[in-house]
Amino acid sequence: MYTKFPYDTTRRETIVNSDTNAGTEFVVATKQLEHLSQLAHEVRTTPEPWGAGVESSAVLGMNVIFESIPQKFPVQDLLNWLRNEINLHYRQQVDEAELTAAAVEVALGQLARLYAI
User: Fold this and answer.
1) What pLDDT is recorded for position 99?
2) Is residue 60 classed as helix, strand or coil in its secondary structure?
3) How many CA atoms lie within 13 A of 64 on its CB side?
4) How many Å separate Cα 40 from the centre of its chain?
5) Cβ(107)–Cβ(36) below 8 Å
6) How far is CA 54 from CA 1, 2, 57, 58, 94, in A?
7) Mean pLDDT value across the chain
8) Is 54 exposed, middle or buried (0-12, 13-18, 19+ CB in 10 A)?
9) Main-chain phi, psi angles of 70, to 5 degrees
10) How distant is the alpha carbon of residue 21 from its chain centre?
11) Rg value, the chain, Cα
12) Is 27 helix (H, G, I), strand (E, B) or coil?
């Protein structure tokens, strides 16, 4: 079976699709997720985006982290999962303020530029 990530650097996560309220299993690249966390902490003061939806560069960044994304899966759900995951497991200090979705979105765009997909 083809995989774009080495097996020892991945984990399986179930993320809920807000449209169907059903969980979908994703393969998550742990090293890239950690790198995203570092980038997000560097851009944490980014204001909320003006428009609705997620920037295309952020979607490319999601392709660096997730082995595959179902065509009709809401990317906003993935963005929220990434934000929650970083805030839960990758906070640098206990008293640190939580990252916003906008900071994670900007970091995803930066991540996409660093990795060849």
Assistant:
1) 85
2) helix
3) 23
4) 10
5) yes
6) 31, 28, 8, 7, 29
7) 84
8) buried
9) -55, 145
10) 19
11) 14
12) strand
CA–CA separation, 55 and 49 (whole Å): 9
CB-CB contact of 63 with 117 (8 Å): yes
Say what the pTM is.
0.84
Token code pair at residue 65: 């982290």
Strands of the chain, DSSP E: 10-17, 22-29
Check: CB of residue 103 under 8 Å from CB of residue 97: no
| Contact of 32 with 61, CB cutoff 8 Å | no
Residue 32's nearest CA partner among 80, 86, 77 is 86
Band (pLDDT 50/70/90 cuts) for residue 111 is very high
